[in-house]
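Worked example

This section walks through a single chain of length 82. The input is the sequence exactly as stored; nothing has been trimmed or padded.
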Amino acid sequence: MPRYFFDIFSEQATRDEEGEELADRETAREVAIRIAAELLPGHSRQLARTGRVAVTVRDAEGAVVHELECRLTTRSPAASPR
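Given that input, the structure is written out below as tokens.
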């Protein structure tokens, strides 16, 4: 089975050196989504501060096969016409 690595970009970059053996790229994508969902509640300050939390999936050769990025975009309310 192929090995995939899940790097996390939040308060600091964390490179996955161990990886995980998974059936295929689609399964690696599902794992990345699960990791991001677990990260967000604990990284809300980071998301508010930098506007970004991400999980990058690499294959055994180091090629990025998925990148899941959560961004916070804040918009000011438009001035209401009078």
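What to look for: The mean pLDDT is 87.
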